[in-house]
């Protein structure tokens, strides 16, 4: 994709954007294979946690090819679903998928969202925070665009947890993933990035603290797949912040 068609972002963002533009053609297949078919289950769990109602307005941020957006539309055919991402390549694949015309696709940077305050009942984001330069800026933008009482739900990888499985998980990340990537004909540097960014990302507990620092309430999370994946949820308190700083791991 020609650089003149890229949305302006910071230096790290520009690298990530280019990488996802290049991955777009293989992204969905790669996801299903890499997660052994589990990925859609986690996205369904993300939508479960959002507490959506008919007629809701939802932002799937870092939507990529739109899996989360499609899941919301599957459940609520009257929902207004906006899929936002800074990779036009990923969104181009999403628009071409079945149901792609039922979603509003918006080019945007999660660090400077082009939406008014208090716009959405929920902001759902899969694998965004690992990629951004500043988690706090992204979370405060997400909180800003949520309506009071609205929900943020986040799906991301977590670093391999200590314990017996750790060497196996690290070996999968360091060797298995690149092999899979090569088999699918994908740029090896993309897999190196996925592996590194996962191993150096926040633990689920530390990520929950980021939500609290960004003044979210009712923060909780659940681990999946041997604690290598986590879903976090949090609310923007209706009527001003109360000091509920609980965080729970289910
Ligand atoms: C691993 S993909 C996830 C796509 C989708 N959420 C899913 O569940 O499959 C990560 C997406 O985040 C997008 N992304 C990363 N940083 C972003 C940012 N600062 N603003 C907007 N999108 C971003 C990338 O372009 C990419 O499409």
UniProtKB/TrEMBL annotation:
Give the species this sequence originates from: Acanthopleuribacter pedis
The taxonomic lineage of its organism, from the top, reads: Bacteria, Pseudomonadati, Acidobacteriota, Holophagae, Acanthopleuribacterales
SUPFAM superfamilies reported for this sequence: S-adenosyl-L-methionine-dependent methyltransferases (SSF53335)
The family this protein is said to belong to? Belongs to the class I-like SAM-binding methyltransferase superfamily. MenG/UbiE family.
* Any single Pfam family the record assigns to this protein: Ubie_methyltran
Q: Where does the chain bind S-adenosyl-L-methionine?
A: 65, 85, 109-110
**What job does this protein perform?**
Methyltransferase required for the conversion of demethylmenaquinol (DMKH2) to menaquinol (MKH2).
MF (Gene Ontology) = demethylmenaquinone methyltransferase activity
Is Aminoacyl-tRNA synthetase given among the entry's keywords?
no
UniProt-listed InterPro entries: SAM-dependent_MTases_sf, UbiE/COQ5_MeTrFase, UbiE/COQ5_MeTrFase_CS
Enzyme class, first EC level, given as a word: transferase
The biological pathway it contributes to is: Quinol/quinone metabolism; menaquinone biosynthesis; menaquinol from 1,4-dihydroxy-2-naphthoate: step 2/2
- Record EC number: 2.1.1.163
UniProt keywords (A-Z) are:
Menaquinone biosynthesis, Methyltransferase, S-adenosyl-L-methionine, Transferase, Ubiquinone
Q: What is the protein named? A: Demethylmenaquinone methyltransferase
* One of the GO BP terms on file: methylation
The chemistry this enzyme catalyses reads: a 2-demethylmenaquinol + S-adenosyl-L-methionine = a menaquinol + S-adenosyl-L-homocysteine + H(+)
The gene coding this protein: menG
